[in-house]
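REVIEWER CHECKLIST
Item 1: Sequence provided? yes
Item 2: Single chain? yes
Item 3: Sequence as submitted:
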Amino acid sequence: MGVSARVSGEHGELRRPSIGFAAICLGYFAIILDGSVLNVAVPAIRADLHASIAGAQWVLNAYTLTLAGLLLTAGALGDRIGLRRIFLFGVSVASRCSRPRSSRIARARWP
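Item 4: Structure as written out by the authors:
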């Protein structure tokens, strides 16, 4: 028996599970990409902060612990007020925060 393209929701509306799956994959891709970019940026972080390898590792650890804490908090809030709301809120905050920062970095590095 095949999987239906549409599943009936709580209030009778039709939902497409593939859209939700694509959103989850996109969010996971963003987390993996963010971690990869941070690991690639370790030499630049060391140079900008005049830090040793241990100092750069502290930066990576601080980022990882902060991300883990925020993910746990978002999971608990998702259980209380809804996973969809929390996911959309997280995506909107991340997109608002990363866009201006990346343009400022680009202007600072390449005049």
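Item 5: Key structural point noted by reviewer: Residues 53-81 form the longest helix (29 residues).
Item 6: Recommendation: ____
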